[in-house]
What we know:
The chain is mainly beta. It has helices at about 1-15, 35-40, 55, and strands at about 70-90, 90-110, 115-135, 140-160, 165-190, 195-220, 225-230, 235-250, 255-260, 270, 275-280, 290-295, 300-305, 305-310, 315-325, 330-340, 355-370, 370-390, 395-410.
Amino acid sequence: MHxxxxxxxAACATLLLAPxxxxxxxxxxQDVIVGERAAGMGGAFTALADDASAAYxxxxxxxxVGSQNLSxxxxxMDYQGQRLRGYFRGQDLRTNxxxxxxxxxxxxxxxxxxxxxxAIIVPESVSATASADFSDPALxxxxxxxxSVQTYLIGPxxxxxxxxxxxxxxxAYLLYGRYSNNFHGTITDPATGRVDELFxxxxxYQVGAMGIAGLKYxxxxxxxxxxxxxxxxQPSHRDDRLSIEYSDVSGPTGTFTRTGSEAKGQTYYSRxxxxxxMGAAYLPSPAWTLAADxxxxxxxxxxxxxxxxxxxxxxxxxxxxxxxxxxxxxxxFGFFTxxxxxxxxxxxxxPQPGHVDQYGVTASVGLVKGSVSxxxxxxxxxxxxxxxxxxGQVIDATTREAALFMAGTFHF
Length: 412
């Protein structure tokens, strides 16, 4: 029975706390869609890229911005949830995340030779909690878990017009992230009254660098093409704190024994793969804009607290439309995929990442008045796939997300 308890704790803590959660992490690449115009169009912005968010989508587009400006967008409400069916002894587990976070900030400076930008972008932000009370005649398992992950891209970008039809650009970003995982669980044996307890805490950060190079070509007044290449990144990780305490509380007298350990510098790396995005935009009339992007990602090796796996090559699609009956109030719609690159999990005791593909839609309304433009929008997404139960069986997993986002730009 003692071995079973330790196995349950180890499996539960690993599956919930390692940075390979079902909802987000190193196996998905479109967790947050940023920008003012781009967010409403589902992230289909590589060929358009005509505002400050070009620093992220395609730096070549900065050449067409043409004015100094400050731009900010934020998820004023972001809800994420997941359901793992049959997580322990046939019972489901639900996790939830509710938060607010700025998604990007830009300062753009236009000169006669080129347009420059300084950007702060948040491509990933999760703050998830999970609580459960599982019981059957043999044992009772209770736990609380909290996971927080934030990733930032910070750096300069530049775009310039090589010819009136061909624009080029590049960006260099510092990648910085913080992660925090906390787990507390107890296992109670109803027959003997014995209670086993586990505390686990991990906090740390990652630092790396990545670059973006892009081209934008005006095939005609109505058709634009875009191409972007993003370098891979292998951030270096460091644990500020790793502590594990396992306690046995035995019998009615409450005899107490404790063992614990603390360590730093655990083996953990996650490679952000090389990727390329090809985009096209079509403007059939002054009121309508249609756009489409296809992103292809290379495979990448990942290791997290004893779990090693290779993310597969994958791709994502972004589709967007904008209708501006009047230039002062455009309506935008979009569709996007956020497919997992993780290999499908298999039955067995070893921890493995979940594989869940997400699909989402966006919609927003903009308001342009003088030197100020704003947008208010909604993002809805859902996902289906597989993950592992505590006992090591492959189980169904579903995710859902709803985010209300706002953005604004001041031109001067």
